[in-house]
Amino acid sequence: MKILFAILNVALVAFIIYRHWKFHRKNEIAVFYWPGLLSKIVAGIALGMVYLYYYQIPGDTFLFFEDSKKLTELARTDFLSYVRFLLFDEPTHPLWTEIVYQQSRALFMVKITSLFGLITFDNYWITSLYFSVLSFMCAWRLTITIVGSFPSAKTAAIVAFLFFPSVVFWSSGLIKESIAMAALLFLSSAVVKIWVGKQMPWWEWTLVIFSAWIEWHLKYYYLAVFLPVAVAALITRRLSAIWHVKSLAIKMLLWSVTFIGPLAIISALRPNFYPARILAVIVSSNREFISMSSAEDVIEFPALEPTVGSILTNIPRAVVSGIFRPLPWEAHTMFQWLIAFENVILLLFFITSIGNASLMLKSKDRLLLFSMILYVFTLCVFLALSTPNFGTLSRYRISFVSFFLLLITIENPLVKKLVALIQRS
Questions:
Q1: Contact 352/412 with Cβ under 8 angstroms?
Q2: What is the CA radius of gyration of the chain?
Q3: What's the whole-model pTM score?
Q4: Which residues are 389's β-sheet partners?
């Protein structure tokens, strides 16, 4: 039975991929479709293999799967009880005590995994395949949307969202980041479409709402930064067009005003984002990670306290560390060496992009670029301060590092030379 389900699911995935490819095969970057898809699928398999044979611990990926199997077993014996468990987090439910992940965001991931478990007959690798393909499709959607809207960002978008190694690896397979990044990238593609004035049919708007709902339940802090920034940029652009605003200063004032509304809503919905509490949450998380980590594996923030002054003092270190560390002389494990190599590349791209700062200021889309910079900056600071472990941060930072890479590789002279070299060879 399991073999039959495996064959049927592989056939279904192949059909979905074929239909998706057929729809996009005439796109100008179609040549990158199959390499990008293959990278995601291989990365999803590699993720499971790394936890299985390198770490030799179950890790989130297999613990999510084991919990999901308990739910699918319940579904096969008492489907109504399974549905009730999906819809409500009831500690009184008979299955509650058997679940390892009872925390709401982790449990939400378990529930999603169980839905795929019903289809795959509890096959970890095929469930991982579904997640990887879904993640790729959302990355592909954002890439072609950017390329179609901003041709000068073609190479930058391809590198940032389809082939940057850590982003590909940590957004593939059976982990929260795989689904969370898929939702984030779908939302990003919608923002780009609205920005350039493209119409979206009702089903796309439905998927936008669904993606926001998924993001909120899996990685609410992604959405807590992304949504206010995106809404402020889009509303400011619209109002500036209606009122014929030309002054950058007035546009920035409009942006600031429209930024406050969604930020206040987010803060009201999540206790951890209450202004009086967020600093304490950051410092508490920081100390918890430091207590569980080796001294050489963490970013040190001297005298970090839950005060505005202390946080502001540590922001420069958080930005540099969140994007560029560990560097080669700080690496101690194979994965740290790989991330350190990536960070050197990021540093080179950043240095060679500094000369383009004036081009960004003159761009007609500078408000969108500014919003992207603020998103990267804010999420980087938040994650670096609250998650100072190099290994964990390398996984969490994919939520902003791909956008940072996009920013620093647009019209980058080093990237142009590398592309020319590749084309000649």
A1: yes
A2: 22
A3: 0.95
A4: 298
